[in-house]
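Below is how a single chain appears once it has passed through the pipeline. First comes the sequence as given, then the structure the pipeline wrote out for it. We keep one example in the README because the format questions we get most often are answered faster by looking than by reading.
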Amino acid sequence: MTANLAIDLDRSSPVPLYFQVAEQIAEAIRRGDLTPGSRLDNEILLADKLGLSRPTIRQAIQYLVDKGLLVRKRGVGTQVVHGQVKRSVELTSLYDDLRRAGQEPATQVLKLESRPVEEEMAGVLGVRPGSEILYLERVRFAGGEPLAVLHNWLPPGLAQLTAPDLEGRGLYELLRGAGVRMRVANQRIGARAATQSEARLLEERRGAPLLTMIRTTYDDQGRAVEHGSHIYRASHYSLEVTLIER
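Resulting structure:
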């Protein structure tokens, strides 16, 4: 409930009041003050408590619904869907990060197959064009909701991977268990709109914003051991980076 939620409005600010309300509710969700399943007071009560009009409150709520943080349910009201997954940019797997954060990770393996490598990917992995590599495609879930679609390419002979293994453990954990010593990665982060097939897998609308991450990981001998191209629901996921002055 929002009865004890403090919302401090600056009525002299150029920032619209609806946006101030929405951002403070979103921050309460991120802090965990409003947990998944929490119900918000209805628009009339919220408007009365904050001294705002119903259209202003309605606009704030709709903004958070569009971001995927709230959902309206008939006969129930407006509820918190989830807290956004925040992930530090480190050489870790999404599965392990989710597990440490208590997010109940789960995985659906869509593809696990050997295939001839194309020339560009062969250069990335340091193998001959046309040689066999391992290709993985998975959907990662957090708290029962789809969070990401993961595509990985691996050179042959690193580890014996099975679908049950990948459903129960993270790829990096499996590689380390097979003796692969990962040390460094090159990573690029971007954003784009979801295609129709991606939207279907992630339970989003077509054109919804997605975060993208492309990463090549190397072992302690400098050999490429994994290349990943992943997409994440921007409404559910963010990346955190610590900057240090040199």
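The first strand starts at residue 70 and ends at 73.

See the next section for the split statistics.
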